[in-house]
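Form 7-S
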Amino acid sequence: MALATEVLNRDDLFVVGVSVRGSKGSRLIEVYVDGDQGVTVTDLAKTSRNLAFALDSDDLIPGKYLLNVSTPGEDRSLLLERQYLRHVGKVLQIQLIHEDGSNRVEGENLGITDGVLSLKTSESEVLELSLDRIAKAKIKLPW
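Output:
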């Protein structure tokens, strides 16, 4: 993940996750990139070229590999505070962490300040949720 972050080298884009699967000679490397203002196809292509160059130059992955650079997509979990900021106004489905199990809540993302998410429920109640209490958060898709 450090190499992908270094290669990206832009303040408005950031790495959300990296996955490496497979065995020597047939690895699949998936890099998920997001941006404060979104990500363009040009951004993804440039990141892919630069990352492939860095991987090949340093011979970090011996043998053949397939590199896939993409956005996390609307159906993937929000992991970073920057992602919550990017999706203000959208309805989130959240699974909370509790000692006695988990609890689910849904509402409009009103924003995040100092690691605390403000969420407006369908009953117009505003919940203040610390990110460390959130087990999983996803954008509710319209279908």
